[in-house]
Structure formats: C-alpha cells, structure tokens
Amino acid sequence: MSTQHQLRALLGLGLLGTVCACGSATKDEFPRTRVTIVAGSSAAPPVTGNPGATPPAATSGTTVAPPPVSPLPGTAPTAPSAPQPVTPGAPPTMAPGAIPPNPAAAPTPAAPSVPMNGALAMDECGLKTDYPGDNYCIKPPPADKGFQLHVGPASYTNPDPQYILRAGQEVTNDFPATSGNTQKQFFYFRQFRMRPGAHHNIITVTGGTGLDIGRRIGTSNHLSEDSPKGNMIAPENKGVGIPIDPNQRINVSLHSINTTDKTMLREVWINFWYRDASEVTEPVQEMFQTGDVAFAIQPHEDRVLGPFSCSLQGNGRMLWFYGHRHANNVRFSAWRIRGAQKDLFYEGYNWEDPMVLEYSSTVVNPKVDTANMIEGGWSGILDFKTGDTIQWECHIVNKTDGVLRFTNNTYTGEMCIMDAELVGVNCGSLGL
Question: Which is nearest to 178 in space by CA: 220, 148, 142?
C-alpha cells in the first residue's frame, strides 16, 4: 500500500448512508436530515464582484483519550455513541434554503451578505440553542449563485448522538453528501463556519470506492474562515476556478475535540459560491502531502520531522498554504527550492490556531521573526516552475509520557502535513 493510501486509510472514517436534501422542520429544528445540501434562497441578492482525498475508509467515530492537560480534573471522558444511519427526510415543505423558524430568535436578514472588505459574515440565522457557537451559522447563497453544505443535527432539542461532543471527548467522523449543483459548475470563494470544538473539516470529492483518494475541494482549521479572505480575488486570479460535476458525491471529514467541562454540539456550515464558467481559464488544484506517516517520537523527545520534499511539474503559482500539525508541534516551516536558492515562504508557531497564508499581488504577509517566534512568510505572488521543489519540516517536542505516532489524536498524536491550492503546477513525487 502506498504512503498516500496508508494516510487515507488512517484519516478517512466514512460510514453514513443516504442523504436527503430537505424535510419538515418545527421550532428549533433544521430539516429532518443529518447532512443537508441547501441550494440557496431566491430572495437573496445576487453576488457582486467576483465570488470567489480522503476515501471512505475503515473506521469511524473514533474516541481517543482526553488531552493530558485537561481542564477537567477527576472527570472521565464519556465514550461517544455510535453514529446512526442517515434517515431520508420527508418531502420538502419549505422553500429551498429556508431556515426553520425559531420563536426565540431575533429577526434575521432575509439573505446572506457576501463581504467584500475582509469582514466575515456571522450570526445570520438567529439561532438560540443551549450550545455555544450559534453565531457561526450563516445563510446559504442564492440558488443560482451557489449552495451550502450543512453538517449538523436534525433537532437542537434532541440531537443525534454523532453531533454531541461530551467533556473530554475527541472524535472524527465522515459525513457523505451530494453537492447542490444540478449542472457542472466552477467555484472559488468558500465560506467555512464551525461551532467551537471543531479542529478541522476536510471536504473531498469521493467519486470512487476503496482507496480512491478523490480530490479535495475545501478544508478549514478555523471556526470562521473565508477563502480567499473577504472574497477579494487578486487581479492575476480573476480566471481561477475549481470544477464540480452535477450532483457530485462529497465527503466531509470532521475532527472535533472538547477540552471544556460542558457538552458541545458538532455543526458545520460551508458555502460554495459559483464562478461564471466563461471566466474560468485556470483550473485550481488542492495539494495535500503528508511527509512521514510511520514515525515514533519517544516520550519527551525533541525531534525534527523532515525535511520532506515534493518535486513540481508545470509553471504556475500557489494561492494559499497552511501547515497541519498537533499539540506537540513548536514550529512548521516550508520553503521553495530553486537550484541553489532556498526561500522560506511559511513559518508557523501556533498549532492550535494554524496560520493560513495567501500569496497574491494584493497580500502582504507578516515577516518571520524566528528569535521572537513571530510567524509569517512570503508576500506577493509565489511562483513555481518545473524543477522547483517544495520542502517542509516540523519541529516536535513530545511533552507527554507516551510515544507520538501519526494519528488524529490532538494531544497524543502528531502530523506534519502541508496543504495548499495551486494554479498551473502540481506537486508530484514525494521525497521522504
């Protein structure tokens, strides 16, 4: 089995079944589905400006030990309930994209607003539940402008077990769905929103079975994140777009961890905004490389994983980059190697809130200050040519009494994964 397939088998956790797009709703309930694709509301105004592989695998609903520095002394974590099969919803009784009424909610706008100035759309649904994070709910795009992928409970008063995150619990699940577009579309601008407790979501086009690794179409490690930020597309990126086939099979891998003493709710809202196909001249590809998946870092060992590298084919540029790692990481660094020249384009020190850098003619990123552990990276367009390599490494200091291995466990496992989106270039063979 290849390294990439080993990784996908470790990360992929899909087991849920049928998905229904809509259904009946009362009071504080969303339509009776567990994974909802919302086409949007025709009442919303049109978008102005430029709206912007994980296979199904063997395990699901994994529960791991709580972090060693849990704020809950004497509290034992509760094992998660097994995910339940998705039950198809009733015939739709609501307009596509409508939000179920909530008597306790404050008045909300009739449609989502797409920020053009760097601001994040927030608190568009007027939710009033007993769980933190109601303000992360956003409304879907208009039906002709995009669709929303919603992963969450059918009822807030009686949530299904797979959406409950108990104190001290860590879990990763896959949620299969079908995209909301009925014809081939391109998109670029995406809005990611997750309730507190979410560590990351990974969205892939599945399109196959077994170890078919599919294709990534989005990922987020922040509770609120837009890509590109503020829906501000640089001049050189006016022609970029990511294709998606009609009624495309999608998988959402959601990793959550609760380090509080209260029960939390797992819920995600992701908006995909279409681009006019006639304007798309440069397809975008998401890159995902894992480095080593077979390491074993001994208790209290100080070690650098890597450097790893991948060779590049094609001439193009990188749109954004981030380094995925866990709680024992103290530094993630990445370079572009061109002949004898080595350019640092990413250095991050904060594992819990991982920095995402965009590279374009309109972005100025913070400068790296290693002595003072100020993270940052390259500013401007980050170009690549055939023959260049991307190199990255992770500095790990094992603060635990156990061995760190490649797992999703935030505090008792580690990773050194680079993730990016590229135009005109791809990262091929991997050097370990």
Answer: 148
Contacts of 261 (CB under 8 A, 6+ apart): 71, 72, 75, 167
Smallest Cα–Cα separation from 326: which of 64, 133, 74?
A: 64
| 217 compared with 118, residue with greater pLDDT | 217
Ramachandran angles phi, psi of 342, nearest 5°? -125, 110
Q: Determine phi and psi for 7, rounding to 5 degrees.
A: -60, -45
Rounded mean pLDDT of 52-65?
34
Read off the pLDDT of each residue in 358-363 and give the average, rounded to a whole number: 93
Tell me if 427 sits within 8 A of 311, measured CB to CB. Answer: yes
Q: Mind listing the domains of the chain with CATH numbers?
A: 3-280 (no CATH), 285-431 (2.60.120.230)
Rg for the chain (alpha carbons), in Å? 21
Query: Distance (Å, rounded) from C-alpha 176 to C-alpha 247?
Result: 12
For residue 413, list its beta bridge partners: 405
User: Among 96, 84, 4, 83, which Cα is nearest to 41's?
Assistant: 96
Residue 36: its pLDDT value, please?
55
